[in-house]
Design a protein that fits this description.
single chain, mainly beta, 7-stranded mixed beta sheet, 4-stranded antiparallel beta sheet, 11 strands, globular
């Protein structure tokens, strides 16, 4: 089992920056990837970014490319999301997720954190 705890959310003005953290515990060394998703009430959850040490790769949603950067510490099972040039449309609950494997090229997101709220004011 893996437990994930997010931190770093808050309220920021448009154009500002925030850094989210996700601390993993448990069997984090068995993970294939970790990532970030976000969701606005009434809308579907949206992929934001992922990092895989096993695949040596990172990926981003088009909407955040060039503004967000994902990083992490494999040994600690922790990841971070540095967000710059924030926009009101980035307002959402951001959740950390961990994938135990990959199937047909898609990460299998098995574990989820509780989430942290990011609010960007215009």
């Amino acid at each position: 089992q893996v437990q994930l705890v997010e931190s770093g959310g808050g309220v920021v003005q448009a154009g500002g920056s925030l850094r989210l953290s996700c601390a993993g515990s448990g069997r984090t060394r068995d993970l294939y990837a970790m990532g970030w998703f976000r969701q606005v009430p009434g809308k579907e959850r949206e992929f934001v970014s992922a990092i895989s040490w096993k695949a040596n790769s990172t990926s981003y949603a088009d909407s955040v490319k060039g503004r967000f950067t994902i990083s992490g510490d494999d040994a600690k099972g922790s990841i971070y999301l540095q967000m710059h040039s924030l926009r009101p449309e980035d307002t959402a609950g951001y959740s950390c997720a961990a994938a135990g494997g990959i199937l047909d090229g898609y990460y299998q997101w098995d574990y989820w954190g509780q989430g942290t709220q990011v609010t960007v004011s215009s």
